[in-house]
Amino acid sequence: MYNKAYGIIETLAPLHVGATAGEETGNLNLIFRDQFTQTGIIPGSSIRGRFRADMRSRHPGEEQRWYGHEAVEGRQDGGTTEALVKFEYASLVWFPVFCPGQPVVWVSCPLLLKRFKRLAGIDENVPAPYTAQRGLQGRQMQDRGKILFFNLGFLEIENEENLSQWIPHGTDLDANKLVVVHDNDIAMLHDMALYRQSRVKLLDDMKKVDTEKGAFFNTEALPEGSILVFPIALKEKGWKPFNEEQNSCELYFGGLESIGFGRCLVSLAGDYQ
Amino acid sequence: MRQIPDAYKKVPMMFRSPIPGRSQLQYLDKDKKKAREAQDVEKWVSEWTDKSQLIPEENARDVETETFQAKSYQVSWRFVTNGGQDDGIVRPVIGASGIPFYPGSSMKGAFRQACEQAEQLGEIPEGTCNIYCGNETDITPGCLRFEGAYPTNDWREGLLDLVHPQQGWQVITPDTNKKPNGESAYAQISLDRPTLRFAISSAKPLSSQQWEQIWQIWEKAIASGLGSKVSGGYGQINQTSHRILYKAKLKGQGQAAKLIDETGEFRPNIFRAALRGHALRIFGGLTDESTAQNLVQHLFGGIQGNEPTVGLLGFQFQPSQLEIESFGSGQYAQPTYDVKGELIWFLTRPIADPNQERRLKNLVARLMQFAMIFGGFGKSWRRVDHRIFFEEYYEDTYKALIGCHWQWLDKSTKRRNVKVGRTEKIAEFIDRVRDTAREWIQCQNQPLNENQWASDWREAWHPRNVQVWGRVAEDMDDSVAVHWFHKSYQQRIQGIQSEGSIYKSSVTGKLGQISLIWHRMYPVILVKKNPEDPKQPIVKNTCRYLELITIFPDNSKECDRFLEFLHTHPENFQLLWGE
C-alpha cells in the first residue's frame, strides 16, 4: 500500500536533539535517546518539521499536500489532511568513537544494524557481536584477536567478516574501521563517543564568568561523522523534497543551530520519486 | 574473553583515575624527571596524538559563498581554552576524530560582544546584532550560525605547556630555598601557534557587503584575544582592538624556557612576569603588604581574595625575528633565544577616568624602563649575558649559560625610553618611578602607608632595603663585577687583608636559591637635542655601558663585607641610590 523509502543522515557537525525537560540531569543538557539502546535518536516529528519548513520556503503551499494540511480555524475537522509522506525516527547505524592511542572506529551493535537491515533491505545476516574486518587496526595480542580499548574496558574482536555491505549508501565509511559490539555495550560506548563541552556566559565587559546571570552548564551532542537511518512511507510517488532531481541535501536538525550544531547531509533512497 | 596480562597498565591515561601512580595530569613528579621517565601528562598527550588526525586539505581552505564562509587566522603564540571536561587539567574541547576544537558557542559569544560594541560606537547600524545573533528580548534566532574552528596546521606539536607562577618566590620570600605555597609548576594543554579556520554559515544568502561586515566584526572580536589567558599573551592574533598604553621595540637574547620534553621556547609572558614583579617591588616599598598585593592584582589580575580579578593590563609581543638555538654541551646544553619584536601593553577594558588612564600609561612606561635599566626578562634575568660580557668564561664549554641581554631597538623607542645616560641620573629616575607609583596608588584611593612598607619582603624597593651601585664601563670587556660572581673580589694579602668573596654564597645565590644581587650592563645611549628639529632628538649609540649592581642586603657576614668593599669604590663604583 505504501511506497517504501529511507533516508541516511550523516552529521557534519555535532548534533543536539535535546531531551525533554524531565530528563535533564543537573546542569548537563542531555540529548534525546532511544529507550532500549540508550543511543541518540532524531524523532520523526523533528525530521518532518525540517522537511516541511524547507519545502514551504521553496514552494509555498506544496508542503500542505505532502506533509498534511495544518489546522484552519472554522473548518470542519480543522481542515487537516493526511500527509502523503510519513517519517519515523532516525536511529544510529554507526558512530565514531575516538580513544587515545587507537584510530577512530565506527561502532554499531546488532540491534541498531537490524533496523538498518530492515529499512535498507540488506540481505546479509546481521553480524555477531565483536565482529570487524581483517583490516581493522587495533592492538594485536599474542595468539589471539585484536584488542580495542573503550570506556567499558578492553574489547576483543572475536570474529572477522566482510562488513562492506553495512556501509550506508551516500557515505564513505571505511569498512576496515567498523566494529560491531554487543547490544549491552552500545550505551556505554555511545556515552564515550558523545561530543561534550561546557558552556558559560561571560561578563559583557570583561573576560570573566558572569556568576550572577550565567549558569555553567554542559552540552552533549552526537559527534561529527555519525550515521543515522530513518524510514519513509509514501502514499504517492513524485515527492521532491530537495532541489530538482537531487537525492541528497544539507539540512539542519536539532537545536543550538546558531552555535554550529546540527549540520547534516541527508541522502534518500528507495521508491519515492 | 580471556584475561589480558597487566591490563591496568594498558589503559589509556584519559581513562585512569586521577591519583598518584595512575594519571595525575597537572602534577609534575620530580622523581620521574630525575629518572628521565615520562610525566603522566606527557603520556596523556602522546596517547592523544598517537593515532590522531589532521583536518583534510579540502576542509582547510578558505571558502566564500553566499551562505557559507570560512577564514583562517594564525595565533601569534599559544592558544588555550578549557573544554571543562577534565578535573585535572585545562585542555580544549575535543571534536571530530580527536582533533581539538574551538566551539561555536565561544565564537558566537565573542562575535556578539564585538557586534554590540560596534553598534554602541555607531560603526554599524543599530539592530545589526539582532539580525546576526538573534534578539535576546524577543527570543528570535539570528541568521548566522557560528560553526567554530579547527586548527588546520599540524596541531600535535608543543601541546604541553608549563605554567610556573613565582611572584612570591621572586619578590617576597626571604628563604628562597623554600618555594611559597601554590607556586609549583603545573601543566596545561595549549595549542602552539595554531592556524584556526573559523566558519560561519547563514540560513539565507547574504550579499558580499554583508559578509564583509560580518568578517570585519569577527576581526574586531578576535583582536581582543581568543580563548583564555589573553592578558598573559595567549590567543593573540596580529592586531589588537584594545587601547594601547605602551609600545616599544626590543631585542634580547638569553636562556629560553624549557618545555617538559626539554625543547626550548621563547615565552612572551616573561614580560608580564617581569612587570608584575617590579610593580610589586615598587608598591611594596611605598605601602603596606596587602595594599601592594591588591594593587598588583588589580593591574595584572589574579585569584587572591574572594573573587578572581581580571587585570587592567594585557600585552602582546609580535616577534619580527626569532631564533631558538642551543648553547653549551653535554648536560650544560641549554636552549637559547635571540629575538627582536614589538611589545605592546594595552588596557583590557576601558577606564572611565581619562586622568587614571594617563597615570597608568606613565606607570607602565616607567615599569618597562625600570625593567630594562636594572635587569632583563625571563630566565637568569638578574645577570648579564656572560656570552657578551665574560667571553672567557666559556673557554671551557662545560659551563652553564648565564644571563640575558635586552636592548631598546629602534630610534623612536630609544627617544621615548632612554631616561638614563649617566650614573648620576639613576637616583632621579628611581625617584620618578616611585612618584609615578605613588600617584597611581593615590588615584586608586588606596592608602599610601609609607611607614608600613613591606619590610619583610626580600626585594621590596625601599631605600632601607635596596642599594644601587654603578659605574661606567668603557666597553663590553670592561665589566668588573661579572668576575666577582666567579672568584674572589679581594685577594688575600698576608697580614693586610683577608680574602673577600661572594662566590657561591647567599649573596650570589645558586640553583634553587635566588641571589641578592642584580647585575646589569645597560647600554649607554645618548639622546641629544636636535637644533634642527626639537621634536626629533638625535639618538646616538655608544659602546659604553652603565654597569649597575642592585643589592638587597640580608645582614649576612658575606654581604656586609661585600658592602664594605663597595664602599672603597673599587673601579669607581658609586652608591647611586639607597641608604
Helix content of chain A: 10-25%
The coarse silhouette of chain A is globular
- How many domains in all of chain A? 1
| Mean pLDDT, all residues of chain B | 89
Largest sheet entry of chain A: 11 strands, mixed
Largest sheet of chain B: 4 strands, antiparallel
Q: Would you identify the regions of chain A where 5 or more consecutive residues have pLDDT less than 50? A: none
Biggest contact:
A-B, 48 and 53 residues
Number of helix segments of chain A?
4
Query: Averaging pLDDT over every residue of chain A, what do you get?
Result: 88
- Gyration radius of chain A, in Å: 21 Å
Distance between the termini of chain A: 16 Å
Helix fraction of chain B, binned, reads 25-40%
The proportion of strand residues of chain B reads: 15-25%
Structural class of chain B: alpha+beta
Detailed description of the structure:
The complex is a heterodimer of chains A (273) and B (579). By secondary structure, chain A is an alpha+beta fold. Chain A is 15% helix and 30% strand. Chain A has helices at 44-58, 62-67, 110-120, 186-193; strands spanning 3-11, 28-29, 41-42, 85-87, 90-99, 102-108, 131-132, 139-140, 146-150, 153-156, 159-160, 178-180, 195-199, 217-221, 227-234, 248-252, 263-270. In chain A, strands 1, 3, 4, 5, 6, 7, 11, 12, 15, 16 and 17 form an 11-stranded mixed β-sheet that branches. In chain A, strands 2-14-13 form a 3-stranded mixed β-sheet, with no helix packed on it. A 3-stranded antiparallel β-sheet of chain A has the order 8-9-10, with no helix packed on it. The longest helix of chain A is centred in the N-terminal third of the chain and has 15 residues, at 44-58. Chain A is globular and about 75 Å long. In chain A, 38% of the residues are buried. The mean pLDDT of chain A is 88. With 579 residues, chain B is α+β, with helices and mostly antiparallel strands. The longest helix of chain B is centred in the middle third of the chain and has 21 residues, at 354-374. Chains A and B meet through strand 5, strand 6, strand 10 and strand 13 of A and helix 3, strand 4, helix 4 and strand 6 of B.
